[in-house]
Amino acid sequence: MTYVVKDPCIKCKYMDCVEVCPVDCFYEGENMLVIHPDECIDCGVCEPECPVDAISDDSDDASKKWVDINRKYAEAWPNINKMGEPPPDRDDWKGVDGKFENHFSEKPGKGS
To answer: Where in 22-87 does DSSP place strands (E)?
Structure first.
């Protein structure tokens, strides 16, 4: 099992999860974070920190595709190990559906 970041993170990118991760397995894209599934130790401390419920374990079928997405971008984006500044319009994106198909950016973030 591993934890993954899913669609709700896109354009919200709060980053509270980064502060609690004991192994620094988060990677930053322009408008979302991902977890490297090979680095995650399955501790779960990040999951309750996400205010938009974008983090879950990969135990259900809906989360399986996110393992590959998280791995792909974790290998391309810079590591982030401290909370940065979330987007100013993050609250406007809470609860918006279809963000991966319509708003996901493959561009890397700044990292830390």
So the answer is: 26-28, 33-35, 55-57, 79-80
Whole-angstrom Cα distance, residue 23 to residue 15?
15
11-58 pLDDT, tens per residue? 999 999 999 999 999 999 999 999 999 999 999 999 999 999 999 999
Between CA 109 and CA 112 the distance in angstroms is 9
Q: What contacts 26, CB < 8 A, 6 or more positions away?
A: 5, 17, 18, 33, 34, 35, 36, 46, 79, 80, 81
Nearest CA among 38, 41, 34 for reference residue 6: 34
